[in-house]
Amino acid sequence: MSTDQKREDATYEAETAQASEQTEANEAAQTDEAAAEAAPEATAEATDNKELDELRKQADDNYQRFLRTQADFDNFRRRARQEKEDFAKYASLKLIEQLLPVVDNFNRALSTSKETRDFDALLKGIEMTYRQLDQVLVQEGLTPIEAVGQPFNPELHQAVMQVESEEHGEGIVVEELQKGYMLKDKVIRPAMVKVSV
């Protein structure tokens, strides 16, 4: 091989190596550019995945809170229903407790009258027991309706007869046949009356 040819081969190899280096440099630059372009996409995707995970966790927390609230509400509703049933079942408990001494006194009066056959003592015992019963009823808000001498009021009185009366004007209650009662502000039984015409 001649020196010229050796030079040409060396030049060719040098040029090939230089071209190869240039190609590698270009490929590296392209890879860097692709990596630079892909980096924001990868970063954005990673950010989206992180946000999605946080939203899923928040949705799961909210669902668990909803389930607990629903369970609490079901328990509250069950307790309220039970309390309402108990209240209805034992609504008269206080009144019954107050009436028990009255019942005891009636029993004492009856048993004493059987032994002694004393009518006056029996009458006195019944009068005392009646006052005790009346006191319990007044404490509970029961009041008698005033009727005789009052103008007839269809909300308080039930007229069963009309009578002529020189003593009273027209529409006045002249006689009470059955006592009426109010419980606090509600009429529970109107007074049965005779009314003047």
Automatic annotation (TrEMBL):
InterPro entries: GrpE, GrpE_CC, GrpE_head. Residues 13-46 have a biased composition (Low complexity). Residues 1-10, 47-56 have a biased composition (Basic and acidic residues). It is found in: Cytoplasm. Belongs to the GrpE family. PANTHER family: GRPE PROTEIN (PTHR21237), GRPE PROTEIN HOMOLOG, MITOCHONDRIAL (PTHR21237:SF23). NCBIfam families: PRK14140.1. Homodimer. This is Protein GrpE. It comes from Paenibacillus chartarius. The lineage of its organism: Bacteria, Bacillati, Bacillota, Bacilli, Bacillales.
